[in-house]
Write a structure and sequence with these properties.
This protein has 367 residues and is of the alpha+beta class. It is 33% helix and 23% strand. It folds into two domains: 4-205, 2-Layer Sandwich (Ribosomal Protein S5, domain 2), CATH 3.30.230.10; 216-359, 2-Layer Sandwich (Alpha-Beta Plaits), CATH 3.30.70.890. Strands 1, 4, 5, 6, 7, 8, 9 and 14 form an eight-stranded mixed β-sheet that branches. Strands 11-12-10-13 form a four-stranded antiparallel β-sheet. α2 (132-151) crosses α3. The two termini are 33 Å apart. The structure holds (3R)-3-hydroxy-3-methyl-5-(phosphonooxy)pentanoic acid (PMV). The site of (3R)-3-hydroxy-3-methyl-5-(phosphonooxy)pentanoic acid has 15 residues, from α2. (3R)-3-hydroxy-3-methyl-5-(phosphonooxy)pentanoic acid binds at residues 30, 33-35, 47, 131, 133-134, 172-174, 230, 280, 321-322.
C-alpha cells in the first residue's frame, strides 16, 4: 500500500533557476459527500465526485531561485511569495497559502529555495458557494508538481498525479478530487482497491453512457460568504451523535454507486445523490452548534424539481454543497427540456437570476 512517506523525495537530479507554469483546475461536485475528517486532512469516509468543466481556477506560478533574486528582498528561511488575485495583490488570501506551504514543505523540500509569484483567477464568482478552494488548491498543486518534475524529470505520470492530488488534499480536502478524471473517488473503500485516503483516484471501471456529458447547472441562490467554514463544519462531526452511522452510510452509498455507474440506472442514482445532499445538511442541522445552510429558495427549488420529475419522468435531480446553492444534475439527452424548466420555473429563485451551466469534465490542464 502506498504511504505518505513515498512522496517525500530524496534528492533532485536537476536544478532550475527561474521560470513559470500555468495550470487550470476545475471545481468538482461530490455525489457521496466528504464531511468529517481526521488529522492531516484524512477523510472520515470515502467520497466520489463528478469533475466539472467550466468552473475552474487558472493559476500562474512564477518562480525564481532566491540567490539570484537579491532584489526581491527575501529571507532565506521563510516561504517567500506574492499573491495576486485577478491581477491585484490579495493580502487576505496569503495566510491560507502560507499554511498550505507549511503543510506540504516536507513533500516539496525546495519550497524555501524560491520566491514565488502566484497569479490566480476563477471563471466563477469567489465565495459563491462553488468550491473555489478545491479548484484553487488543485491548480496550485499542479504548478508545484510541474516545478518538481523539472527538478526530477524521471518522475512517472502516476507519481505526478497522485502527488499533485495529495498536495491538493493538504490545501483543501475536496481539492484532491479536482486533479484528474471525470469521476473521482477519494478515501479507502473496500470495493475499489485503488482507492486511498491520501489522494483521489479516477474511478477505475467503465461508466455507463448515461453519464457521458452529464450536466450540472448551478443555481446561485445565495452568493454571500459561507455561514460556516468547511473547517468548522468538519469539526462538528467530532462527537456528533450520528457520526459513526453516517460514515458507514457513505461506504454503503459509494458501494451502490459503483453498481449504478455500471448499470446506468438513473432512478437509483437520483435516490443516492439526493439522499447524500440532504444527509450532509441533516448532519449540520443536528450538530452542536447547529446550522441551517439552506435558504427558503433552496427548498422551493428542491420541491419544484421533485414536481417536475414526477410529472415528466425526466431523470433530473439535485445535490447541495455546504451552502444554499443547488446543483441540478441531469443527462445530456434531456438538456433542452431541463434548461427550459430552469428558465421558466427556477431562475426566479436565484439571486439576480444567476446560474452557471456546467458539465462533467476531465480535470486539470497545463496551459
Ligand atoms: O474540501 P472542504 O474541506 O472544503 O470540504 C468540502 C465538503 C463538501 O463540499 C461539503 C463535500 C464534498 O465532498 O465536497
Amino acid at each position: 500500500m502506498i504511504s505518505a512517506n513515498d512522496f517525500i523525495p530524496s534528492k533532485y537530479t536537476h536544478s532550475v533557476e527561474s521560470g513559470f507554469f500555468q495550470w487550470s483546475a476545475p471545481s468538482n461536485i461530490a455525489l457521496v459527500k466528504y464531511w468529517g475528517k481526521k488529522d492531516n486532512q484524512i477523510p472520515a469516509n470515502p467520497s466520489v465526485s463528478f469533475t466539472l468543466n467550466n468552473c475552474k481556477t487558472i493559476t500562474k506560478l512564477a518562480f525564481a531561485k532566491k540567490n539570484i533574486s537579491t532584489a526581491l528582498n527575501v529571507t532565506a528561511n521563510n516561504f517567500s511569495f506574492d499573491l495576486l488575485f485577478e491581477g491585484q495583490p490579495k493580502e487576505d488570501f496569503k495566510p491560507k497559502i502560507q499554511k498550505f506551504l507549511e503543510r506540504i514543505e516536507i513533500y516539496l523540500p525546495f519550497l524555501k529555495d524560491y520566491h514565488f509569484t502566484i497569479d490566480t483567477e476563477n471563471t466563477f464568482p469567489h465565495s459563491s458557494g462553488i468550491a473555489s478552494s478545491a479548484s484553487g488548491m488543485a491548480a496550485l498543486a499542479m504548478n508545484l508538481m510541474s516545478l518538481e518534475k523539472a527538478l526530477n524529470p524521471e518522475m512517472t505520470e502516476d507519481y505526478f498525479y497522485q502527488k499533485a492530488s495529495l498536495l491538493a488534499r493538504l490545501g483543501s480536502g475536496s481539492a484532491c478530487r479536482s486533479v484528474k478524471g471525470q469521476v473521482v473517488v477519494w478515501g479507502n473503500h473496500a470495493n475499489i482497491s485503488e482507492s486511498s485516503d491520501l489522494f483521489g483516484v479516477e474511478f477505475p471501471r467503465a461508466i455507463h453512457a448515461n453519464f457521458t456529458n452529464f450536466q450540472d447547472t448551478i443555481l446561485l441562490v445565495d452568493k454571500g460568504e459561507k455561514q460556516v467554514s468547511s473547517t468548522l463544519g468538519h469539526d462538528l462531526m467530532h462527537n456528533h451523535p450520528f457520526a459513526e452511522r453516517r460514515f458507514a452510510q457513505a461506504h454503503e452509498n459509494l458501494n451502490q454507486l459503483i453498481a449504478i455507474f455500471e448499470s446506468g440506472n438513473l432512478d437509483e442514482f437520483i435516490k443516492i445523490v439526493e439522499s447524500e445532499a440532504l444527509t450532509l445538511h441533516a448532519m449540520m442541522m443536528t450538530s452542536m452548534p447547529y446550522f441551517i445552510l439552506m435558504k427558503p429558495n433552496t427548498l422551493e427549488i428542491i420541491n419544484a424539481i421533485w414536481k417536475f420529475r414526477n410529472e415528466t419522468k425526466i431523470p433530473v435531480c439535485f445535490t447541495l454543497d455546504a451552502g444554499a446553492n443547488v446543483h441540478v444534475l441531469y443527462p445530456e439527452n434531456v438538456s433542452e427540456k431541463v434548461l427550459q424548466f430552469i428558465q421558466n420555473e427556477l431562475v426566479g429563485y436565484c439571486q439576480n437570476g444567476q446560474y452557471i451551466c456546467d458539465k462533467i469534465g476531465n480535470g486539470a490542464v497545463l496551459i
